[in-house]
Design a protein that fits this description.
Length: about 375
């Protein structure tokens, strides 16, 4: 049916220009309640509905999930007030695919009453697709920029931290070397007190001597920690039983009667610097013993996959405060009243020299070391 003929049946008079415009657009007409009374061939083509399935239906038959309730409410309020509405609508076809149309809805009045609504639409699906692609590209670029900025900031922080640590390391090394000489002299003179001489001292003097010896050993250990932090020596790998590394590490663990340390029965062989890994394990075990505070258990688990050794050191202590977890591998950071705060930093450095990782989690407190087998 020609557009002009169809519209005359609805008592809508249009000019020849308007008829041509309608014939090249997607045109639909509803009554004042939104029931479809006319659609042109372009409307049927884009919606994939034959006209007889649209006539008599409410315009909501084309409604997609794209627009909100507020969107439709505002549109209806505008045209119900006798005003023209312009905008973009995403409609749904008969086969549930969708399309975008640039839409103008014109109220047709008779006297003071609205008789019909004429909807003139143009298909803008391709333009919307291009627009959406551009928006996605823009969004992806923004995300990439955020990621790159974050990486640059992180690298900058690492560089500043690295330079600061290098300066601290150099200074600490000099101080440690300067302290080592007088400490050696003190240790030598303390050792000159033979058992025969010690027996002649009263109890208080003997306690002072033992305290002096203990303090010298503690200071030596602190100096060695500082020197280990300041220098990075090359690792020397060879095939090693990790259980033997653990047993040697136990010689450096200060424990007490109320603490049980459970070592695994199973073993894993790998290529590593046994002496350095022994230092890592003694540090983790001493930390675990300190955490249980005189009463509790420390469990060590060894396992492996096709590529890595996996070691877990768990303790039954109260756990590490959540805000301390991120700082725990930072130099000079410690929750103990004694020590340098360098033990975990040195351990992390040794593990990373082996191409591995070290991490910590809570409930229970668990340090996990993952090191390549070869």
């Amino acid at each position: 049916m020609k557009t002009a003929t169809a519209l005359k049946k609805l008592n809508l008079d249009i000019s020849e220009f308007e008829e041509r415009l309608f014939d090249h657009s997607v045109v639909g007409i509803t009554d004042n309640e939104g029931t479809i009374v006319y659609v042109n061939k372009n409307f049927c083509k884009i919606s994939k509905y034959p006209s007889d399935e649209l006539i008599g239906e409410n315009f909501r038959i084309l409604k997609s999930d794209e627009h909100s309730h507020e969107f439709w409410e505002k549109l209806w309020d505008t045209i119900s007030s006798g005003n023209v509405w312009e905008g973009e609508i995403k409609n749904k076809t008969k086969d549930n695919s969708t399309y975008w149309v640039k839409t103008v809805i014109i109220p047709i009045t008779e006297g003071n009453l609205i008789k019909n609504f004429v909807s003139i639409q143009n298909n803008i699906s391709k333009e919307k697709e291009i627009q959406n692609r551009l928006l996605k590209m823009e969004d992806d670029l923004l995300k990439q920029n955020v990621t790159l900025l974050s990486q640059v900031e992180k690298k900058s922080e690492e560089l500043v931290k690295s330079e600061r640590l290098a300066t601290i390391g150099t200074m600490a090394s000099r101080v440690a070397h300067d302290l080592k000489n007088p400490l050696t002299i003190i240790h030598t003179y303390a050792d000159m007190l033979t058992p025969e001489i010690l027996t002649k001292l009263d109890i208080q003097d003997r306690e002072k001597w033992f305290r002096l010896q203990t303090s010298v050993l503690d200071m030596n250990r602190i100096i060695e920690d500082v020197l280990d932090f300041a220098r990075t020596t090359e690792i020397k790998k060879k095939k090693t039983s990790f259980l033997s590394v653990l047993r040697l590490a136990m010689n450096h663990v200060k424990t007490s009667y109320g603490i049980t340390i459970n070592l695994p029965d199973s073993d894993v062989s790998l290529k590593c610097d046994a002496r350095k890994m022994e230092g890592v394990m003694s540090n983790l075990l001493n930390n675990a013993v300190h955490a249980v505070d005189g009463q509790g258990e420390v469990d060590v688990e060894i396992s492996s996959d096709s590529k890595n050794l996996i070691v877990k050191v768990k303790d039954s202590g109260p756990g590490i405060p959540e805000n301390d977890l991120e700082k725990i591998f930072e130099p000079m950071y410690t929750t103990k009243t004694t020590g340098t705060g360098l033990g975990l930093v040195i351990s992390k450095s040794i593990v990373e020299q082996h191409g591995g990782t070290i991490s910590v989690s809570n409930k229970p407190t668990t340090f996990t070391v993952i090191v390549p087998l070869s």
